[in-house]
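tool=predict chain=A
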Amino acid sequence: MPFKQKGFTLVELAITLVILGILIGGAIPLLSALIKQKKRSSTISYMEDVKKAIINFSEIHGRLPFADRNGDGIEDGNTYSGLLPYATLGVRPVDSYSRRLKYELNRSLGSDRYTTCNALKNGISGDPKVVDANGSSKAFSVSFVIVSAGARDADMDGNVFDKITSGSYTGDNTNGRPNYICHPPTNGFDDIVIYAGPYEIYSKICEFVNVAVNNKSNKTIYIYDETHGIDIGRLSSGRSGIYQVLSGTRIEIRSGAHGGGSIINSDPPTPIIVAGRGITINLESETGGRGKPPGSIFPPIRPPRPIRPFR
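tool=predict ok
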């Protein structure tokens, strides 16, 4: 009996091709969405690493890095808004979209540890400000902000950084004025914004300790912060005071203002570097508690006169 070989009929082949077309047609958009999501997730991860690098820089230098003004990746002094100084921070220069990040820092956090910590302690204000769509629609000041332009110019205004001008949450990432906007992606917005609040920096670089001073001397004294060249207090005779200074500050108790006069005897003696749990400095009266200055000689005690016999 002859063997009859069976194959696909034209109808079966057509159905198979239609099914394959449907599967491929559905897979391409899904694959494209997965690639987009991977790039966005990779950029967010990169930006979190950048944020850590900026905070680590501040921990070492006592200030935030300045922005890059000329595109060489190195911070430029007194440049508060520009590109991320990737070379200064030692991070990758571009995000997953092969774009440089925008970076801006608060103007009070770019000088030195003393100025930075006092600004953070007292509360920062001014630019940069952010509106976060995950919270209030009111803008608030942050220590620094970094912005990725995302995959495209989503709002099609000719600038890869986007803005949102209507609705409850608005902002402009092209220049951060009046504020930057952190918002989930939409058809007209795909920027990624990450920022650091003041307490994220404060906890890393600022440790304040108390200096208690009891002035029981008969002089007016000045508590001088020799590290930063300023008087932090003045106490008249019989007064006491408590002052907060940065850990590691060198303190002197002096007879004159602004580092003038001479260092006054105290317990413990100064100059002294303050750290740990703080310190109490006592100044005693120069009379030494017996009504005479230290080192004075009391008159010798005379022997009693001999008693004459009664006649």
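The two ends are 177 Å apart (CA to CA). The CA atoms of residues 100 and 311 lie 118 Å apart.
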